[in-house]
Amino acid sequence: MDSLLIKGGSKLEGEVSVAGAKNACLPIFAATLLTDQKCVLKNVPDLSDVRFMAEIVAAMGAEVSNPSKGVWEIEAKKISHIAPYELVRKMRASICLLGPLTARLRKAEVSLPGGCVIGARPVDLHIKGLRALGCKVEIERGFICVDARKMRGSQVYLGGRFGSTVTGTANIVMAAVLAPGTTVIENAACEPEVADMCKMLSGMGAIIEGAGSPTVTITGVPKLGGTEHTVLPDRIEAGTWIAMAAAAKGKVLIKGALKKHLGSFLDILERAECPFEIKSPTSIYVDASNIKLKPVECTTLPYPGFPTDLQAQLGALMTQADGISVITERIYPERYMYVPELCRMGANIVREGPSAIISGKSKLSGAPVMASDLRASAALIIAALAAKGDTLVSRIYHLDRGYDSIDKKLAALGAKVERIKNAD
Ligand code: EPZ
């Protein structure tokens, strides 16, 4: 497995471009199974999760090609209704196959996804949604088995005790687009990635109103056609770059950082007196040469609230604030695997239930640390940039799942970073 060796203290300077959004690509790849026509996807990031999703849809019978960087062509003329266990069990997001298989074939068998380090990953709301559409759904042999011969549009409420469900909303929208009648989803996820998937479905001929809002209305159509779709920029990567530039006291222009998708995070950074400037609706400039961060209190919430996928990155940055910050995690209360690793670098963070109490400003020192999940890996890099000395981040396959060439982009900005192949 690869590791990243990062020398702290190097300033970041220059421009970086944000890649396409991972969390839009995964349901979008699944959505190509809704038609037997060719779909052309552009601005697709080069991520292991994306390559994996391509492998899964190909294993199900689609013709998949990657003719050039960022471009994927998928033609699902004939597909199987069974998502292969040996593939699906490795990536939770493959649960997004449930909706399109149900809609296209009126039956589906998708392996129940496992949990992961950030917490249990239940799918009860996905199942509730399909049952509301008149599907028979049983759990057999570790699979979710769907019989959708009697599926038709209906009303469904998708709110759970942690708010709505992103991939659950994607699944029910993808099932409903080919269901006879009208479906109204209440408490739908409003994440921009779901809205981007809906935009692609509309391009295929789906009739969807209210995408990106809590109430989504879908009028079923008999068939969908192919389309060409350009994936929106990744707001989580953009937020990660802001935190990295701030931690490294850099001067960085982040291109593709959409202000309209980062409102809650930018509000927190404003309260922290993090020196960023909105250069345009699609670019943010950070000049952190004289940064003096203030502590903040914040809570993760469903979109448009503070995204849980930026919680670890903010936690790492707040070790450099003068005072005590409190971050509370309401989506995945256990999403703090990065904390013990940061403490090994000299951070002063105490867990208190779903909250992390971060006492800054800490003098971080480089150390060997281990990545545990995708966003925790980013937090370790942020800390390494602010630390004195060398940090070796091991198991960065976690990082490669969700960030396209982050080490190359960091090096291009002047960071002293080296990828060590097969380090352990
Ligand atoms: C999506 O996961 C993202 N992944 C996650 O990003 C992100 O953290 C999460 O949404 C929340 O924003 C993709 O889009 C591929 P949820 P998803 O269903 O859809 C509970 C990253 O780092 N819940 O919105 O699996 C659940 O336990 C990844 O890029 C139920 O109770 O998340 C959680 O507490 C990590 N029942 C909350 O809802 C359900 O049926 C939100 O889950 C489904 C979810």
Lay out the secondary structure.
Blueprint: E1 3-7, E2 13-17, H1 22-31, E3 38-42, H2 48-59, E4 63-68, E5 71-75, H3 85-88, H4 98-105, E6 107-111, H5 124-132, E7 136-140, E8 143-147, E9 155-157, H6 166-176, E10 182-186, H7 192-203, E11 207-209, E12 216-219, E13 227-230, H8 235-247, E14 251-255, H9 263-271, E15 276-280, E16 283-287, E17 297-299, H10 311-317, E18 323-328, H11 338-344, E19 349-352, E20 355-360, E21 368-370, H12 374-386, E22 390-394, H13 397-402, H14 406-412, E23 416-420
Parallel strand pairs: 2-14, 3-13, 9-10, 17-18, 21-22
Antiparallel strand pairs: 1-22, 1-23, 3-5, 4-5, 6-8, 7-8, 10-12, 11-12, 14-16, 15-16, 18-20, 19-20
Helix pairs in contact: 1-2, 1-7, 4-6, 5-6, 6-7, 8-10, 8-12, 10-12
This protein binds ligand EPZ.
Q: How does this structure look, described?
A:
- It is a single chain.
- By secondary structure, the chain is an alpha+beta fold.
- 30% of the residues lie in helices and 25% in strands.
- It contains 14 helices and 23 strands.
- The chain has helices at 22-31, 48-59, 85-88, 98-105, 124-132, 166-176, 192-203, 235-247, 263-271, 311-317, 338-344, 374-386, 397-402, 406-412; strands at 3-7, 13-17, 38-42, 63-68, 71-75, 107-111, 136-140, 143-147, 155-157, 182-186, 207-209, 216-219, 227-230, 251-255, 276-280, 283-287, 297-299, 323-328, 349-352, 355-360, 368-370, 390-394, 416-420.
- The strands form 6 sheets. A 4-stranded mixed sheet has the order 21-22-1-23, with helices on one face. A 4-stranded mixed sheet has the order 2-14-16-15, covered by helices on one side. Strands 4-5-3-13 form a 4-stranded mixed sheet.
- Helix 1 runs parallel beside helix 7 and helix 10 (311-317) packs parallel to helix 12 (374-386).
- The radius of gyration is 21 Å and the shape is globular.
- 54% of the residues are buried.
- The model has no long low-confidence stretch (mean pLDDT 96).
- Bound molecules: ligand EPZ.
- Ligand EPZ is lined by residues 22-23, 26, 93, 121-126, 160, 162, 165-168, 189, 308-309, 331-332, 374-375, 402.
